[in-house]
Amino acid sequence: MHIRNFSIIAHIDHGKSTLSDRLLQSTNAVSARESREQFLDSMDLERERGITIKASAVTVFHVHKGEQYMLNFIDTPGHVDFSYEVSRALTACEGAVLVVDSTQGVEAQTVANAYLAVNNDLEIITCVNKIDLPAAQPDEVAMEIEQILGFPAEDCIPCSAKTGEGLPELIEAICERLPPPRAAKMPECRALIFDSHYDDYRGVIIYIRVFDGELKHGDKIRMMGTGRTYTVTELGKYTPKPVKVKSLGPGETGYLVAAIKTLQDVRVGDTITSDLRPASEPLPGYEEPMQMVFCDFFPSTSGDGRGSQFEDLREAMAKLALNDASFTYAPVHSEALGFGFRCGFLGLLHMDIIQERLEREGGVEVIQTAPTVTYQLLTTAGEELEIQNPAELPDPSIWKELREPIVRVEVIVPKEFVGDIMTLCLSRRGEFRAQLAISETRQMLTYEIPMAEIIYDFYDKLKSMTRGYATMDYEVIGYKTDRLVKVDIMINGDPLEALSFISHKDTADKRGRSLLIRLKKEIARHQFEIPLQAMIGGKIIARESIKSMRKNVTAKCYGGDISRKKKLLDKQKKGKKKMKSIGSVEIPQQAFMAVLDQGE
To answer: Which ranges of 450-548 does DSSP label H, i.e. alpha helix?
Structure first.
């Protein structure tokens, strides 16, 4: 039997999931009665948002020229925040199908995913999708692919995942143009873990790609990274229903169950080998993802107490980290919010998806602080510190240099919006690097911008300025020193570290004041006046006050001497003074996110 392993890669909404659905139907893996849109997007969240979050591995069988082919394919996400999912999927493959929308053309993530596949030495088949639409321009898009990516225009396969047109030609190209899996290098078993998830009844279910040797039902296996041993209780493939098999040979992908209950024993990128005849060295794993956005998650005070909620959150995070290896978490403590976790993400959408998955799948309510990026601090003693939270910054007297991460941003935009995008990039302290005409109507702009300036609302503004036509991709290129300061926020005289932020000195006053104005709207009035202050070092740069709610204590006085009213008002005044010194300010979740909505 011939084996072909490939991934389907594309920009967001170019038709990857629809193409996967059509491949399942074309190879009779799914009947017309069972089929549904986005068949492989199993999460409710994926269906609601119309995006792929998790890569899905499927095995289908196809007869080509009288010979049986086993096609193992992976439907991957398209958003830049999930590029780690794409890179993991590509490591388990020999080829990739690059899908480009014939109405949109080559976009930012198309370029990024194509380079990922090229870097992995994969054979690439280009496919121009949605040719059934009235606005389709398959020939122009094929020329665009040749100009930008270098793949011959005549090799592009025009198809429509919706109607099925061009699908037989695509499947034929997959069988003929994609290479078979490499030959086994050793007789001992070596299988790469490229994904996993937790099942309440069966424990950890591992997705593997076998490179060398053979894995059989009942084998005793060893995780080469952790050294733990298990017995295989079930082997199978998703076709796309789980189907049990007795063994998996070289080049095959499938799932493995071995009654693994300890979540820490499974690491994505680890190598599985036989315990009786272990391999001498593991397979090359994955490069660790670099988390660039950090924020704190704390359990909500609702429920049956903070302690049990914290344990629930810890358990939910452990299960989610098994399913998504690209986010990290570590315990943290805040005076205002108690115990929680400091979490690292690949981007802002990634953070949003993780919070929603924690609440849905883990059944916990979380309070989330405003996201920050990683800074580097060089002290006067010559130490280099990584700062993931403004609260970690030491006294400014020992700072020598504070460096911020810089990203190279590539924006593909219709030429009539070029001026607006340049203005936006310059307002975010961007430095112009290049401008390239990729077609008669579109241009690619390259800027270097501090990452802190793009993680909040840059993408939203980019989309609204260009009526949704612009696309962007970014990569971190290094750190750069600038005039950065830490702005502390004081509420009722107490510093609240969760709201402190690092800003450029020129914009610190403006950002501090706009944050206080937002907080004033978000924090409810109390029985006492609440002062809000923003300060740099010991200097207050902005102040706002939330007026107290006043109870009419003199309402019960009907006439009589004025001194009776004064006595009651003095008593109220003393009570408010005492309340201000011992009273606590209730701060809602929206206040912590106010850092995001400070405007321009």
So the answer is: 458-465, 505-522
Concatenated DSSP letters of 87-154? HHHHHT-SEEEEEEETTT-S-HHHHHHHHHHHHTT-EEEEEEE-TTSTT--HHHHHHHHHHHH---GG
Looking at the DSSP assignment, which residues form a beta bridge with residue 244? 236
Domain ranges of the chain: 2-177, 190-274, 293-369, 375-481, 485-597
Cα 27 to chain centroid distance, Å, stands at: 32
Question: Terminus-to-terminus CA distance in the chain, angstroms?
Answer: 60
User: Tens of pLDDT along 469-516?
Assistant: 777 777 888 898 888 888 888 887 777 777 788 888 888 888 888 888
Band the pLDDT of 426: cuts 50, 70, 90: very high
CATH topology of domain 375-481: Alpha-Beta Plaits (3.30.70)
pTM above 0.85, yes or no: no
**CATH 3.40.50.300 assigned to 2-177:** yes
Cβ neighbourhood burial of 277 (10 Å; 0-12, 13-18, 19+) = exposed
- CATH code of 190-274, in short, is 2.40.30.10
